[in-house]
Specification:
Protein-Tyrosine Phosphatase, Chain A, 2 domains, 18 strands, alpha/beta, about 450 residues, 15 helices, 6-stranded mixed sheet, UDP-N-acetylmuramoyl-L-alanine:D-glutamate ligase
C-alpha cells in the first residue's frame, strides 16, 4: 500500500468536493494538489488502465469528441476514465485519474479518454503513454500562447515520436493534420467527408493553403470550411488521403444526419462541425476494435455539456450556450446560429484573461457580417473586452447593445427578447456563464 498515493487521491477528492460545494469547477486544483503530494501519481494510475488510452488533440472539437468517444466506449460495456469537463492541461488530466480512482488508491477502468491541450502534450505524453491519438483539426488559436501553427505541429510531432506504438486517428480533410500524420510515419486511420455538403462563400482564413511538404499552394476542388476540404499539391503530389471512415449523404439543419459504413446516424445537434466530431468518435471506437453497433443509441442519449451547444430553458426562453474561441470555431458557431431561421437574440461575451490569450486581434478574422440578417433581432456584447467586440461589429455596420455584466445581459434578453437566445462566449467566460444559466434554470423550479 502506497500511503502517499492514497493521501494524494483522498486530498484531491476532498478539494474537488469543496470546490463543487462552493460553485467552482475545482478540477485543476484537485490535480495540482495530487501532484504536489505524490508527483508520480499520473504515471502510476495510467499504467493501471487495463486496455488502451485515447488522447484527443486538435484546435476545435476536442471536448465534444472526447466525451462522445467515452460515451461510445461505455455503450460497449467498457469502464472509462475521462476528463469530461475539458480541463486539458496537466493538472486537469491528473484530476481525471485521481478523481476516478478508488479510495484504495487504484484505478478500475478498461479505457481512458483524455483530451489534451496541444502545448501540454509535452508534459502529459511522457506520463501516460497513449495507445491512440485522435486528431480533430489544426487552426490558428491564441497566438500569444501557442504562436504560429508550425510551433504546435512541431510539439505534436515530437511527442508522437516519443510513443513508438501510437496509432493515429486523423481528420484527413485537414491538410495540416494529414501532413503531420504522414510525416510521423505512424500507422494512421483517416476520417473525412468526400463530397461537398454546402456552399462555402465566406472569406475565412485558410491556414493550410500551402503544402507543408514543398511549399506550393494547394489546389482545392472544394472547401467544407476554413482549410478543410479536398486538396492536392500540384507540385509534389501530396493530397487528401482516402478516408477509412467516409461520411456520406450528409444533411445539416435542425438535425445532423449522415451515413458511414452503411450505417445511418442522426443527432439532434446544429453545426456542420459536429459531423466531424461524431465521425472522429466513431472512427475512434471502430479503431479500438468495436463494431459500433451501439453508437446510434449513444448518439440519441448523448447530451453535449460544458457549453458545447448546451441547452437551457429559462422562463419560456430557449437558451443555447456555445464556446467560440478562435476564427474557425467562431465562424462555425455563426453558421450554426444562422441555420435557425426563427427570430433570435445573440449575446457575445469576450474576455482576455491569460487562458483566453490576451491578444484578441483574431476577432477581426471572424465573419461577423453573416449576422447581418433579419432573423437577428438583437446583439448584446459583454465580458471584459465588450468595447472591442462592439467596435468590431460597428465595422460591419451591425448595431449592438453593451452590457459588461453577462448575468444582466442574459436577464435583460430573457425579460425582453424573442424567446430564442444564443450565448457565444470565449474560454474563461464559459464556466461562469454556464453557472449563471444553471442557477437561473434551477431558481424557476
Amino acid at each position: 500500500m502506497n500511503i502517499r498515493r492514497i493521501a494524494a487521491i483522498w486530498s484531491a477528492k476532498a478539494a474537488g468536493f469543496v470546490c463543487k460545494k462552493m460553485g467552482r469547477q475545482g478540477v485543476t486544483w484537485a490535480g495540482k494538489i495530487a501532484l504536489k503530494i505524490y508527483p508520480p501519481v499520473l504515471k502510476e494510475l495510467s499504467a493501471e488502465i487495463k486496455k488502451d488510452i485515447f488522447v484527443v488533440c486538435g484546435t476545435n472539437g476536442k471536448t465534444t469528441t472526447n466525451n462522445m468517444l467515452c460515451a461510445a466506449l461505455e455503450a460497449e460495456g467498457q469502464k472509462v476514465i475521462c476528463n469530461h469537463t475539458g480541463s486539458n492541461m496537466l493538472n486537469g488530466v491528473v484530476a481525471a485519474f485521481v478523481l476516478g480512482a478508488k479510495l484504495n488508491g487504484h484505478i478500475d477502468a478498461d479505457y481512458a479518454c483524455i483530451e489534451a491541450d496541444e502545448a501540454s502534450t509535452k508534459y502529459i505524453f511522457p506520463q501516460i503513454k497513449p495507445s491512440y491519438m485522435v486528431m480533430t483539426n489544426l487552426f490558428r488559436d491564441q497566438l500569444d500562447r501557442y504562436g504560429e501553427i508550425d510551433i504546435t505541429m512541431n510539439i505534436l510531432e515530437e511527442m508522437i515520436g516519443k510513443v513508438p506504438d501510437l496509432k493515429l486517428v486523423v481528420n484527413g480533410d485537414d491538410a495540416l493534420s494529414a501532413y503531420l500524420a504522414m510525416d510521423t510515419g505512424h500507422p494512421s486511420i483517416y476520417y473525412g467527408i468526400s463530397k461537398p455538403v454546402m456552399k462555402n462563400e465566406t472569406n475565412e482564413i485558410r491556414e493550410g493553403r500551402f503544402c507543408k511538404r514543398c511549399g506550393e499552394r494547394l489546389q482545392y476542388s472544394f472547401y467544407h470550411y476554413s482549410q478543410l476540404g479536398d486538396y492536392v499539391c500540384p507540385s509534389c503530389g501530396f493530397k487528401r488521403p482516402v478516408p477509412d471512415f467516409d461520411a456520406e449523404d450528409v444533411k445539416v439543419g435542425d438535425q445532423i444526419s449522415f451515413s458511414v459504413e452503411n450505417r445511418h446516424f442522426i443527432a439532434n445537434y446544429k453545426g456542420f462541425y459536429n459531423v466531424y466530431n461524431i465521425l472522429a468518435a466513431y472512427a475512434g471506437v471502430r479503431t479500438a476494435g468495436f463494431e459500433g453497433t451501439h453508437f446510434n443509441d449513444m448518439l440519441k442519449r448523448f447530451n453535449p455539456e460544458n457549453g458545447r451547444m448546451e441547452q437551457f430553458r429559462i422562463k419560456g426562453t430557449g437558451v443555447t450556450l456555445n464556446l467560440a474561441k478562435n476564427p474557425a470555431g467562431f465562424n462555425q458557431n455563426i453558421a450554426a446560429v444562422m441555420q435557425d431561421r426563427s427570430p433570435k437574440d445573440v449575446i457575445i461575451a469576450i474576455n482576455d484573461n491569460a487562458q483566453d490569450g490576451i491578444d484578441i486581434s483574431w476577432l477581426w478574422d471572424v465573419d461577423f457580417d453573416l449576422f447581418r440578417e433579419e432573423s437577428i433581432r438583437s446583439i448584446t456584447v459583454s465580458g471584459i473586452r465588450c468595447q472591442d467586440m462592439r467596435l468590431r461589429l460597428k465595422y460591419v455596420d451591425i448595431p449592438s447593445m453593451l452590457e459588461a455584466d453577462v448575468e444582466k445581459a442574459i436577464s435583460d434578453r430573457i425579460a425582453d427578447g424573442t424567446g430564442n437566445l444564443y450565448v457565444l462566449v470565449n474560454y474563461t467566460a464559459l464556466f461562469s456563464t454556464r453557472n449563471i444559466l444553471k442557477k437561473m434554470e434551477e431558481e424557476q423550479k
